Amino acid sequence: MITVEEAEKIIQSNIKDYGAEIMPFEMTLGRVLAEDIKADRDLPPFNRVTMDGVAINYSALQSGISSFHVKATQAAGDIPIEITETDHCIEIMTGAALPPSVDTVIRYEDLEMRAGLAALIVDHKNIKKGQNIHYQGRDKKKDELIAKSGQLITPAIISLIASVGETELRVKKLPRVVVISSGDELVEVEQIPNQYQIRKSNIYTVKAVLQQHGIEAGMLHIPDNPDVTKKLIAECLQNYDVMLLSGGISMGKFDYIPKALEGLQVKQIFHKVKQRPGKPFWFGKHDNGVLVFAFPGNPVATFMCLHRYFLPWLQTTLGLKAKQPVYAVLDHDVYFQPELKYFLQVNLQVSHEGKLLAKPIEGNGSGDFANLADTNAFMGLPLDKSDFKKGEVYRVWPFNGII
Question: How much is the mean pLDDT over the chain?
Answer without folding.
Answer: 92
